[in-house]
User: What shape does this take?
Amino acid sequence: MNSPQPFSRHLEPQLSEALADTPVIVIQGARQVGKSTLAGWLADQRESVLVTLDDPAVQAVALSDPGFFVTQADERMLVVDEAQRAPGIILPLKATVDRDRRPGRFLLTGSADLLQVKGIGDSLAGRAEAFDLWPLSQGELARRTNPEDFVTWLLETPAIADSERLVPEVVLRGGYPEVQGRSETRARAWFESYATRLADHDARELAGGGYSDQLRALLSILAASGQHEVVRARLARELSVAENTVAAYLRTATIMRLITHVPSWGRSLRGRAAKRPKTSLNDTGFAASLTGFTARHSVSIGGREFYGALVEQFVALEIAKQRAWSATSYRIHHYRDTDGLEVDLILELADGRLVAIEVKSATDINEKAWRNVERFRDRFHDREVIGVCLYAGDRSWRLHDWLHVLPITSLWQHEGATP
Assistant: This one.
């Protein structure tokens, strides 16, 4: 049974604030992450006209008379769901905004990066602000009143507190709203249907023919790798296509917000830093379902390695989700160099400080778990580095003024606790 109530989204205050000073707001994210629900809630808070381009009749009007379409709301806010289906509305929308720059005139949603869709005639620079909506964060799933903000909490609070252990079911469930409350079997069936529809319909519509057969295979290969550096030549061999075709597939999946990339942190004092980003699917539940991975596999000898990759992906995704509402500005990277030093996540703060994070799926760890964080700090001694080792256990402790060992669950269970 599905959850009886829609989940509140922590991004809503930022969207409401932006609607108060910006003419065009864009909510973009993968299919079924909750864009329409959120847009409908925002529409209910003000006078508005809500239309969806999933409706063939509405889409026909948008395609045949885009000038009329964008002016139909008069003084009210026009909410256009799945706006990427009619890219021709963008130029008339720009023209009407240039004539009347009142804030909150348009709210668009798109199951693709709207401004990268073929046929979009303008970037709407200076007129629009785009927000990424991810699958539900763990704080949203827990229906937290106050949005979780791990990075700000880490920087501002001096003491320590324990938390709960991370259980595999949390990682393998992921954050797509539709699978919450479903059985493991029914969740897997939903994801299978979801991936097939994306490949057979959405990708074909977005990028033309030839994508249907390979996009499904691409998603499965990426799902089986957790968060990793993609080597296009190797991926091309696995898909039996040309390397430039792989690049096109990856671009399409990125535009559809199905995959995400963590860029490398580019500075290296010794050796040469890797430049490839780490790539993964946008949700660990999606990845687990496409690979048939279950909680039972996570405790098997053969499944531990893949589960570890999923846990690293899970942490990176949770931190990326929180970035949208965090009180602290940061950019997310990974680090690897030719000397063999690798750190799972490097968060670069606006003031130049770095948060170096190692992620471990084990419930018991020793000093080897945070050794790379210490090596990273020693190597970049001219930067202030805050070290964190996140693991699946429930105890917290601080080794030095700069190094914390914390449960992974502290990413969202930190309210009232202190690291």
In short: The chain has two domains: 12-133, 139-411. The chain has a mean pLDDT of 90.
